[in-house]
Amino acid sequence: MFQHILSLWGEFKAYNRFFSKDFAPCRQLVFFSESAIYYQTFEPFITELLKNPSIQFSYLTNDPKDPILTHHHERLHPFYFDLCLKSVMDRIDATCFVWTAPDLNSTQVRAFRKSKKVKSYVYLFHAFSSTHLQYNETAFDAYDAIFCVGPHHTEEIKKREQVYALPAKQLLPVGYPRIDVVYQKFQHYTPKFPNQTTVLVAPTWGPGNLMEQGIDALIDALKNTDYRVVVRPHPEFLKRCPDRAQQIKQKVQALPHFIWEDHLLTEDNVYEAAVCITDRSGIAFEYAFGTERPVIFIETPPKEFNPNWRALELEPIELQLRRSIGIPITLNAIPQLVPVLQDLINHADDWKQTLQSLRQRHVYHPNQSARAGADYILSQLQ
């Protein structure tokens, strides 16, 4: 009870400071994050924006562990809100409000309503995937502007506006800084395990994912190899399925060359990995386009949160490119996976040119996306 009162008092003071008249210039541009994991989505844009000496802005987070709360910059103002968050969102009066949470104005449980005082709500994608399969049907309808990762997002959103007679949004060809960051860091990365071949296992979350089916067979297939195997569960899986996660963790930690990585504090194992094994996770594209190395896909059921996705008559990009950036393996074929894995490792260089070409074709502004997004934001503040 006492801790609750302290938290409420702290937020109340932050609330009054945030909405004070003197602080109005810092509310012109506001970023909002629901989780610490999304800081990596915002960070490249923030870094670019802070190169402009005249800009100052705020960053709101709903996660007390968000790295932004320890970020010290005189023109960047972080705030943590939880108990007061709904009131903040209702009252916000930003010129440009930037976030990466879909379902604005929807009936979803965690969805927020638009404030009439916000001039422009801007959506940033935190995944390469298409808009119409893995998201709720109306996930992006309420935004004023969307930073599109590639031509697939532009085409899909325009098609939805056409089919359902929706108001046109500003669709900005920005790109995906997450891929840029992986690519740039990988180019300068010095392997920490040069004498071992690392395999990264990084599934998604949701019904039928690899951690629910297939992970035991995969561990059994890899345990008698010399690979350094890193199992990296999705944060949502850890949150939603703690008992199952604990079972898998115990099995992994009992094996000498297996590593259980249940945090995202470092990306080293992304850069170490010779191959990434996943199911339907968006990490496949970050890894393939960032490191220019191939992916093994375990054929679990597609993540389908929009039952009407076929109405757009557009194949989702995550299905379209699945065989172009790697090799699909059925669940029943997992016991025979090692020869396929070793063949990919032996011929990794053969994939490089293909992945470079696909990145150029399907991602806007490779290695310049943060600059493209920052330029748009600055234009809205003038």
What does this structure look like?
The structure is a single chain. The protein is of the alpha/beta class and 382 residues long. The protein has 2 domains: 12-176 and 366-381, 3-Layer(aba) Sandwich (Rossmann fold), CATH 3.40.50; 181-362, 3-Layer(aba) Sandwich (Rossmann fold). The protein has helices at residues 2-18, 39-49, 85-91, 151-163, 177-187, 215-222, 235-240, 242-253, 268-272, 283-291, 317-320, 337-346, 349-362, 369-381; strands at residues 29-33, 57-61, 76-80, 96-99, 120-124, 145-148, 170-173, 198-201, 228-231, 258-260, 273-278, 295-298, 326-329. It has a 7-stranded parallel sheet, with helices on both faces. Helix 2 (39-49) crosses helix 14. The termini are far apart. The relative contact order is 0.13. The model has no long low-confidence stretch (mean pLDDT 95).
